[in-house]
């Protein structure tokens, strides 16, 4: 019996790429510079083979992959996705999920970005469905993560400034997607070539074969150790470590609800064969419908004398809370290896890579970004086309009437005024940090990120001996970062406090040896007479920008101001990796879990950062989308007409969409030079806050739904989904027509569940699930009560 069950959870690994003679075979791994066969991206770039695994299999996230022959220099080892059809040789079998090692390449004239692709599943009965997958780029100056990485890749000298090797970290990503498991799967069509996706390995997790289904088929897909801990009052006691168990219900999607779903409260425990660990807070699962999957945190501690960082074999146990009966898992008895306990960080890549976004950040969803500085004085760019905070760059590039900023500057200030003349007018005369932090809180944000120093190099914090170019010594003579953090700490301690920091400075003389692209370093030639050079007020000559300026400044932000979020910009030459471990250990000693983005020039990151863009599907790593309320500027732009700012309805819809796909939204305001925030920004933010006040539980602390993030199909209300252990949320971003919300998504609702509209009258709503259509009846009056056109319906799981 048990053996039969285990087979159901088998992972089918496809032999790649030999098993099917696909067109578009590709050679990704190169044995050296003079190899002409490898041409991963169509421009001759390639991975260095010696850094790729030389093994036939690779296991990640509980999935075993068959690796391609990376180390055979004359065999293809990747497939350029081009609508190839994978015909499954397992007739009649059903599958639960698709997993791949994959990456996307940059199109020749494009830039590094995650790419979207559509997987199409064709079933034996002739029907088909599809899934969007999002795949990170194989390398980028601001890297994405992956389970396989190389420290460099071979470059194309013609395209890469004569470099034959590029030392940005280069990786292979992991992706996964759910497959409907109620029908035998015949084939899978890979994404079209316009996706620029390459596959290295594909594995499928089996669903249940045909036959009667009289109980949920619960399968532990993975047990993952994390370096996250559960907040405890006492920082000095041993940390309670979070372990994440991925639990799937492999019963067919269409199997009867009353027998094949998990519908009552169950606890998950871990045990280890030699008693190395104890479960402190069991995991909890209340509802798991067929074909669904959920990640459940379990909190553990090491037993006496087991050192943090010890590898331990654990098994997972599931128990019904009602009668304490153990529930048999498909994977009963299977052992998983974890790293028990959280060791101190050190500066090795291996150690730093274990850092990840903490739960508070994952839960927060909504943050406010603030771009304010000397650029807020001229506050100008052609609206919708350029960022106003880039004023000084645009003034000099090009230094003629080809630049709208140059023309504007000449007309407004004349040729004698240089950028640093604006410092005196950066007055902050009407600034109230309390007004700002109240605004963040009123908006319903859970964190904020303050620009401490932009590319113009003018810092709004105490830069100590590294530079005098700051607001304590020039302009307003105040420590803005200190005042803002102090206000937040006192008035809104629940807000996490974050800091943006630009690693390079456009025109810092000492940056010249490191300069690249739009950050050349070196003084700026005067934009009107070409003389050398514009003043760089407060500059203290240093021998080495990274060691003597950037490093102490980052150190000050981390240890002097106790930031929770280091939001670096631009990447490139960096001191951060030298500071990371001591920052993580320092914060941990204060019981703080901190987070950094992928622009710190490091080989690791806790989240990736699409800019004025959101991701159209879930990504296998944490992401945060940022954008200004201005149509295309983070800093205040006086050229933007009042009606062009993003309104509250648009913000809330964007937030809901982002959250359903696993992202956070960092929405930016650009205060004026006097420190006031224009009503075009404060009013929508407060309206968003009103919505979040009544419906925020559908956003905060939720997780994306494994089955699908949205239903945008014909005849359905335009909806997004979010989940919590005890509830499911269907959020309509179009008004339910005629007072009926409809969706064909397989909502995990059962008979006794309560459905209500958050922000409505609070009454129980009449709902039905008929022929796969979930409908909810709601009064127009109730819909009208919700402050913005987004209606969050909460399904509270009944446990009876
Ligand atoms: C590649 O070929 C060039 C020219 O033939 C040679 O100078 C160079 O040393 C070779 N490089 C490597 C890494 O073999
Ligand atoms: C490098 O890029 C140039 C320009 O696109 C191209 O002509 C050349 O073929 C590429 N080199 C290789 C080895 O593919
Ligand atoms: C890769 O593994 C094969 C088989 O174990 C071995 O023959 C070969 O030498 C290895 N290659 C490298 C580069 O380690
Ligand atoms: C690359 O090398 C060529 C020839 O030496 C030179 O003309 C060109 O300026 C170089 N390009 C860059 C971007 O350094
Ligand atoms: C990383 O890539 C960027 C281009 O995006 C390039 O300018 C830079 O030199 C690369 N860094 C390293 C260390 O190779
Ligand atoms: C994609 O395929 C189409 C035809 O199937 C072809 O015309 C096009 O050039 C291909 N694009 C790329 C980027 O390979
Ligand atoms: C499940 O529901 C069906 C139809 O409503 C019913 O016939 C069946 O007896 C129920 N099974 C169980 C185990 O309650
Ligand atoms: C215990 O509760 C579970 C879940 O409600 C149920 O499936 C099981 O039959 C119960 N077992 C016993 C022995 O009552
Ligand atoms: C750094 O940390 C890693 C991972 O925790 C560990 O394996 C390694 O031994 C540590 N290195 C040093 C020098 O402590
Ligand atoms: C600074 O402010 C004064 C007073 O408003 C104004 O006359 C002057 O043009 C401003 N100068 C700059 C460089 O902003
Ligand atoms: C949507 O509804 C219309 C009218 O009832 C029907 O003709 C159409 O087939 C429906 N579309 C889908 C995808 O169900
Ligand atoms: C709403 O529904 C729940 C669960 O179905 C039930 O317990 C509760 O009594 C109902 N409340 C009202 C006001 O009908």
TrEMBL record:
<dbReference type="InterPro" id="IPR000933">
    <property type="entry name" value="Glyco_hydro_29"/>
</dbReference>
<comment type="similarity">
    <text>Belongs to the glycosyl hydrolase 29 family.</text>
</comment>
<dbReference type="Pfam" id="PF01120">
    <property type="entry name" value="Alpha_L_fucos"/>
</dbReference>
<dbReference type="InterPro" id="IPR017853">
    <property type="entry name" value="GH"/>
</dbReference>
<feature type="signal peptide">
    <location>
        <begin position="1"/>
        <end position="21"/>
    </location>
</feature>
<protein>
    <recommendedName>
        <fullName>alpha-L-fucosidase</fullName>
        <ecNumber>3.2.1.51</ecNumber>
    </recommendedName>
</protein>
<dbReference type="InterPro" id="IPR013780">
    <property type="entry name" value="Glyco_hydro_b"/>
</dbReference>
<keyword id="KW-0326">Glycosidase</keyword>
<comment type="function">
    <text>Alpha-L-fucosidase is responsible for hydrolyzing the alpha-1,6-linked fucose joined to the reducing-end N-acetylglucosamine of the carbohydrate moieties of glycoproteins.</text>
</comment>
<dbReference type="InterPro" id="IPR016286">
    <property type="entry name" value="FUC_metazoa-typ"/>
</dbReference>
<keyword id="KW-0732">Signal</keyword>
<dbReference type="InterPro" id="IPR057739">
    <property type="entry name" value="Glyco_hydro_29_N"/>
</dbReference>
<keyword id="KW-0378">Hydrolase</keyword>
<feature type="domain" description="Glycoside hydrolase family 29 N-terminal">
    <location>
        <begin position="345"/>
        <end position="697"/>
    </location>
</feature>
């Amino acid at each position: 019996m048990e053996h039969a069950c285990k087979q159901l959870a088998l992972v089918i690994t496809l032999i790649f790429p030999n098993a099917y003679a696909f067109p578009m075979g590709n050679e990704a791994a190169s044995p050296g510079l003079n190899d002409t066969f490898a041409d991963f991206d169509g421009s001759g770039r390639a991975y260095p083979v010696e850094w790729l695994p030389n093994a036939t299999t690779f296991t990640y996230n509980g999935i075993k992959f068959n690796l391609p022959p990376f180390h055979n220099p004359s065999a293809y080892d990747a497939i350029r996705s081009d609508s190839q059809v994978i015909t499954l040789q397992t007739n009649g079998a059903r599958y639960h999920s698709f997993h791949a090692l994959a990456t996307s390449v940059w199109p020749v004239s494009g830039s590094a970005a995650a790419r979207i692709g559509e997987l199409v599943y064709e079933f034996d009965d002739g029907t088909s469905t599809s899934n969007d997958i999002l795949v990170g780029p194989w390398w980028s100056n601001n890297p994405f993560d992956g389970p396989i990485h190389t420290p460099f890749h071979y470059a194309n000298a013609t395209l890469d400034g004569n470099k034959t090797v590029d030392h940005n970290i280069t990786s292979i990503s992991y992706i996964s997607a759910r497959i409907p498991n109620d029908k035998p799967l015949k084939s899978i069509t890979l994404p079209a070539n316009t996706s620029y996706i390459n596959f290295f390995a594909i594995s499928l997790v089996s669903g249940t074969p045909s036959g009667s289904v009289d109980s949920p088929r619960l399968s532990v897909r993975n047990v993952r150790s994390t370096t996250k801990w559960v907040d405890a009052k006492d920082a000095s006691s041993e940390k309670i470590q979070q372990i994440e168990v991925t639990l799937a219900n492999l019963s067919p999607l269409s199997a009867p609800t009353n027998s094949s779903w998990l519908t009552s409260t169950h606890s998950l425990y871990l045990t280890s064969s030699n008693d190395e660990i104890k479960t402190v807070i069991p995991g909890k699962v209340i509802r798991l419908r067929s074909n669904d999957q959920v990640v459940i945190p379990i909190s553990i501690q090491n037993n006496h004398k087991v050192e943090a960082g010890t590898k331990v074999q654990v098994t997972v146990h599931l128990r019904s809370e009602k009668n304490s009966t153990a529930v048999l898992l498909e994977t009963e008895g299977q052992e998983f290896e974890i790293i028990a306990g959280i060791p101190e960080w050190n500066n090795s890549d291996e150690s730093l890579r274990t850092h990840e976004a903490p739960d508070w950040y994952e839960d927060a969803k909504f943050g406010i970004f603030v771009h304010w500085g000397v650029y807020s004085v001229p506050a100008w760019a052609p609206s919708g086309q350029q960022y106003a905070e880039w004023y000084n760059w645009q003034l000099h590039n090009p230094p003629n009437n080809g630049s709208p900023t140059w023309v504007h500057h000449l007309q407004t200030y004349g040729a004698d005024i240089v950028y640093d003349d604006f410092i005196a007018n950066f007055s902050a005369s009407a600034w109230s940090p309390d007004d700002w932090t109240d605004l963040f809180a009123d908006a319903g944000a859970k964190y904020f990120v303050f620009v401490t120093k932009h590319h113009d190099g003018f810092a709004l914090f105490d830069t100590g001996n590294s530079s005098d170019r700051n607001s304590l010594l020039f302009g307003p003579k105040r420590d803005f970062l200190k005042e803002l953090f102090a206000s937040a700490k006192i008035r809104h301690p629940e807000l996490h406090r974050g800091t943006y920091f630009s690693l390079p400075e456009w025109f810092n003389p000492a940056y010249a040896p490191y300069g690249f692209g739009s950050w050349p370093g070196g003084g700026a030639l005067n934009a009107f007479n070409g003389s050398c050079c514009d003043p760089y007020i407060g500059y203290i000559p240093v021998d080495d920008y990274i060691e003597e300026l950037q490093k102490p400044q980052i150190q000050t932000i981390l240890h002097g101001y106790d930031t929770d979020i280091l939001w670096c910009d631009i990447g490139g030459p960096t001191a951060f990796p030298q500071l990371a471990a001591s920052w993580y250990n320092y914060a941990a000693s204060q019981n703080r879990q901190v987070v950094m983005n992928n622009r710190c020039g490091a080989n690791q990151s806790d989240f990736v950062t699409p800019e004025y863009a959101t991701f159209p599907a879930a990504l296998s790593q944490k992401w945060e989308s940022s954008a200004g309320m201005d149509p295309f500027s983070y800093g205040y732009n006086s050229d933007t007409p009042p009606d062009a700012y993003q309104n509250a309805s648009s913000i809330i819809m964007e937030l809901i969409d982002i959250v359903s796909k696993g992202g956070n939204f960092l929405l930016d305001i650009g205060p004026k030079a006097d420190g006031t925030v224009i009503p075009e920004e404060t009013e929508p933010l407060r309206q968003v806050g009103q919505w979040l006040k009544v419906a925020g539980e559908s956003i905060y602390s939720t997780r994306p739904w494994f089955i699908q993030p949205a239903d945008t199909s014909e005849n359905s209300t335009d909806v997004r989904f979010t989940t919590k252990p005890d509830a499911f949320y269907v959020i309509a971003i179009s008004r339910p027509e005629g007072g009926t919300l409809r969706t064909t998504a397989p909502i995990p609702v059962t008979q006794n569940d309560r459905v209500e509209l958050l922000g409505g009258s609070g009454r129980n709503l009449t709902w039905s699930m008929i022929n796969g259509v979930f409908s909810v009846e709601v009064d127009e009056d109730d819909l009208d009560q919700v402050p913005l056109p987004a209606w969050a319906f909460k399904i509270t799981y009944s446990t009876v």
